[in-house]
Amino acid sequence: MRLTIEFTFDKGGIEFPIHYNYYIQSFLYAHISPRLGRFLHDRGYTLGKRKFKMFTFSRLNGRHKINKGRIRFYPPVYLTISSPLDRFVSELGSTLLRKDDLELVKNKIYVESIRVHPEPDITDEIKIRMLSPAVVYSTLFTKDGRKKTYYYSPDENEFVELVDKNLRKKYEAFYGKKPVARKLQVETLVKPREHIITYRGTVIRGYMGKLRLNGNKKLLKLAYDSGIGSKNSQGFGMFEVI
Question: What's the mean pLDDT in 106-116?
Fold first, then answer.
């Protein structure tokens, strides 16, 4: 299930740090029920040592200016949220419609509208546009034993392999059974654009762009709902079907 929230605010716009993913994530957690929030934050859907929150969100969309590490948005501003867990999306939408004292990074905001997206026609092959950077990485070790994180671009073979493995684990964690599906194929349609984001002091590299995904349509639907790659609940990996 997916919805887009249209925010407005007082004249002059709202301003907050340019690396705002954590603030959006906190805003979403604050506007679902405490019980669901604790479940997703503390546990989520598990498979071995892996925990999946099973939601994702887009970058903020709207007219804006960037200056000295700060970003100022001017109304209206749009945020899209997606999850295979309908309860998450419905609770969020209902809460935001009821409340008239909403704040985002100490800025007073108002919900102008909420649009529920119709389900897209997802077949075994779809073309997609990233709405937030896709993050795919491995933790490696240097010769002296130190950990090093390497982030893959969509045009690297490891990107495809890791996205496929990640998606299969999400499916098993959420549905309780392993998917029977052929291996995912990914083709870049335009040169990926690297984005560097800081999330609570950690530097994360992700990629925006257009891709062609070919694989099992059930896995592709889960990717649409929950995001591709890693760190989805931190605002990464959301896409739209084009």
Answer: 93
